[in-house]
Design a protein that fits this description.
The protein is an alpha/beta fold and 260 residues long. It is built from 10 helices and 9 strands. The two termini are 35 Å apart.
């Protein structure tokens, strides 16, 4: 099944010894937990450099461009072009949880929700790899919805909340994890008209932008173990709020840690 593409390419203590690990020490006795980062281009955009704590993170990546796939577990420090949000999230979660983290970035720029539902291209390709590998996915971070909000087709928008909830339940079923936590990025602030300096001259969001955001909030409110990070109050107004990626990723990690 073909999917619409709007956004195609990734943009570019010291102290006394203690047997109890601190927030900066990993518990080497535990194995890495595996997270999935999925969605569209904001989950796909590459970081300029590895985040602090990258040495405690291993990654895989499967996007729309096979040139940037990372098919085997690779240290985030050596991974090269990797999802900025996924990398920062994993490094932060590793510090919070005091354990190594593995994360799989499986995002496709411009993908609508239909692409990720059963039978869609993203479900069969990106998620199909994970099902075939029988990996124990412990949680998902999700950033998607811009495509529907921009296209403004009333049909997929009117059913978005129901379909998104069903999709999260499908993931839990596929990964045999009925209580798997899902942390969602609520749609960022988006201003269609921006000045040359990258600031909003007027912030009139597309008419369906808030409808998608409301749908996301509804899913988080009604589906157990789904949390939403509302970023609309501090994002720049850009479609890709690159300067806020690190903060958004850290907020995702804080919510993920609370759900475990």
């Amino acid at each position: 099944m073909a999917h619409r593409v709007l956004l195609l390419a990734p943009l570019l203590l010291v102290g006394c010894a203690s047997s109890r690990p601190t927030a900066r020490q990993l518990d080497v006795r535990v194995e890495a937990e595996i997270w999935l980062a999925a969605g569209q281009s904001n989950m796909e955009v590459f970081a300029d450099r590895p985040p602090r704590g990258a040495e405690h993170v291993e990654v895989q990546q499967f996007g729309h461009d096979p040139r940037f796939n990372i098919p085997v577990w690779t240290s985030l420090k050596r991974a090269g072009k990797f999802s900025a949000v996924a990398g920062e999230f994993a490094a932060t979660l590793s510090r919070l949880r005091r354990r190594p983290v593995r994360i799989i970035a499986a995002a496709v720029g411009g993908s609508d929700l239909a692409c990720w539902e059963r039978g869609g291209d993203c479900y069969e390709d990106q998620l199909g790899r994970l099902r075939a590998a029988h990996l124990r996915i412990v949680g998902v971070i999700w950033w998607q919805g811009e495509t529907e909000a921009i296209i403004q087709d009333p049909a997929p928008i009117s059913t978005y909340a129901k379909r998104l909830g069903c999709f999260f339940q499908l993931l839990r079923s596929d990964f045999h994890a009925p209580e798997m936590p899902v942390v969602v990025v609520g749609l960022q602030r988006y201003c269609e008209e921006m000045s040359e300096g990258g600031t909003a001259t007027a912030c009139d969001e597309p008419s369906d932008w808030q409808r998608i955001r409301v749908a996301q909030h509804a899913v988080a409110a009604n589906l157990p173990r789904v949390a939403l990070v509302d970023v609309s109050g501090f994002t720049s107004g850009d479609l890709h709020p690159i300067r806020q990626y690190s903060l958004i990723a850290r907020l995702l990690a804080e919510q993920a840690a609370k759900l475990q």
